[in-house]
Amino acid sequence: SGGVVTTLCTSVGINETAQQIKFKVYPNPAKNNIAIETYENKNFVVRITNAIGQRVIEKKFQERIEADVSSFGKGIFLVEVCDEKGNKCHTEKVMIE
Questions:
Q1: In this structure, are residues 81 and 15 in contact, taking their beta carbons and an 8 Å threshold?
Q2: Segment 37-66 mean pLDDT
Q3: pLDDT of residue 20
Q4: Among 11, 43, 49, 59, which lies 20 to 30 A Cα-Cα from 33?
């Protein structure tokens, strides 16, 4: 029965992916600025969080936004983009050098 469970997990993963917001963050790794670009012209919220969970940026935007990350220090930051209601979110990691 282990095979059946695996199949179900895979299906769930595919469905979840379909619900995610698609966006790209670049450059990655970054030094001074990052750009966050979505593929839909809707209202989004971006939250950038550092490695210890502190929120360093929270901004509303449509389609594309640039963020100054020069003061963040080095490390890995999480960039989370959510729809306006916060129902759908997707997170990408960005390395700041």
A1: no
A2: 94
A3: 73
A4: 43
Among 19, 81, 86, residue whose Cα is nearest residue 49: 81
Three state DSSP letters for 49-70: ECCCCCEEEEEEEECEEEEECC
The two beta strands, 23-26 and 33-38, are antiparallel
CA-to-CA dists, residue 72 to 1, 58, 68, 77, 80, angstroms? 49, 14, 9, 9, 16
- Can you give the pLDDT at residue 39? 87
Contact 17, 60 (CB under 8 A): no
Type and span of the H or E element at 12: helix 2-19
